[in-house]
Amino acid sequence: MLEQIVKPLLSWYDGHARVLPWREDKSPYRVWVSEIMLQQTRVEAVKPFFERFLKALPNVRSLAECSEDELLKLWEGLGYYNRVRNMQKAARVIVEKYAGAFPADYAKLLALPGIGRYTAGAIGSIAFGIQKPAVDGNVLRVLSRVKASYEDVLKQSVKTALEQEVQKIIPKDRAGDFNQALIEIGAVVCVPNGRAKCEECPLAFCCRAKEKGIVEELPKKKAKKERRVEERTVLVLREGDRVAVRKRPSKGLLAGLYELPNLEGVLGEEEVLGQVRRWGLSPLRILPLAGAKHIFSHVEWQMTGYAISLEETEDMEQNGLFFIEAGETEEKYPIPAAFAAYARYMDIVLGQEKYEERQK
User: Fold this and answer.
1) What pairing do the DSSP bridges indicate for beta strands 242-247 and 228-239?
2) In the chain, what are the domains?
3) What is the spatial distance between Cα 238 and Cα 326, in angstroms, rounded to a whole number?
4) pLDDT 10s digits, 30-65
5) Which of 133, 189, 237, 328 has the fewest CB neighbours in a 10 Å radius?
């Protein structure tokens, strides 16, 4: 039944495709960067990140040679930092094994670090015209509604079966456009949140979910496990114009990034001051800050904050802490968005907020 969606879908895409920076030049590197960025972030939010990343790292070789701190700083605000680390690993393989040029081969793309079936399908079809599907959440939603299927789209077996169905109908001469059209219609018409715009949909004529009146019931997804809650006390330690940061461990959550000093649990002022003194620092004033929270994929941080003014002492940089100018923090040190609520007390903003402010 899916064969009948091909022509109307491509016709719709020809007249409705959004103008996006990564569509202006369909080189495999640009497609790859955009696809990784778009995996957990809205299109409009990605645009400034994409442009900045490409300006700093315009090709595979520059990505392969970039320092970790610069790489993570360029990714700051997008989250899921292991994705950009895997991008660098893949870039190094491309440089070493393929002389810096992406292989125009689906199996070879799939073998690169951090590239799964969706990304390999997107790069292969858009940049090289390879007839392989690129099935993401948008596509799963569209197809489950067209088919009126109550199968759980989070199950790998269901996703694999839909990929196989899409594989059979991808047109030879427009593989990239077809994949993008399916993704596009899921993003702007058969939308994930809110009411689907069935009256604008070129697939409404064959959509079984619309016919049965069950569009809003699909796609079917198994309920996710509840996130683990962790309580933390975050400290903004200031000595004049300098603020304290420290580097997180090389493995685990937010690995290798810089953070504001923080402690487990919800601590009171005296407990915090005691810890600061044990670090060899001399607190002058302490100010309670508003609480904040940050949600990761499997963990939620509920944070209590304090701003603490310090007296300058001879050896302040110990216990992993080091003090830097606030502006230097903003430009050089990648600090995750988890600390955005407290970064403002350092006179800086982080990641996406920073670029939104600059665009105002």
Assistant:
1) antiparallel
2) 2-217 (1.10.340.30), 228-359 (3.90.79.10)
3) 10
4) 999 999 999 988 999 999 999 999 999 999 999 999
5) 328
